[in-house]
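SAMPLE LOG
Freezer: B-3
Tube label: C17
Construct: single chain, 169 aa
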Amino acid sequence: MIYLPGLALALAALWFALSGQTEAIFLALAAFSVLATLWLAGRLRIIGREASPYHRAPQLAAYVGWLMIEIVKANLAVIRSVLDPRHTISPALVNVPAECRSDLAKALFANSITLTPGTVTVDVEPGMFVVHALQEENARAHSFAPMDRKAAWAAGAGPKPKARGKRDA
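STRUCTURE (predicted):
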């Protein structure tokens, strides 16, 4: 039950961020809804490391920063291929092996692929994602490996990724 206080704080912060209400009746309703949610989560036995990601905030923040840079790079590549008069768009499907073990890491990896322009996660199979890519030369399974490692690390399901080297470039 060590994750209970963090989950309560996260739920209360989310409620306040979405409502912005400070009147007594609304605060009482917020307290009731947070307590009811915590009670239900406890009864369903879903309070744990996966359900309370507040302890991963620094890792997730670092991952989001890295992902934003990758999204900008992918945007530039897509713009370049769309505006290229030689029409370099050559769509392809690729099977990408996923080393992520936890459900949170798998979801983070699959959604990161989809958020990156020019790629979409089409299907999820055990240990593998089917990805549609806009350019065939960028649709290599090994090109997704750095994102897989970093997503696993950010979700707390893997070791810290190595420093960027020639292999990850």
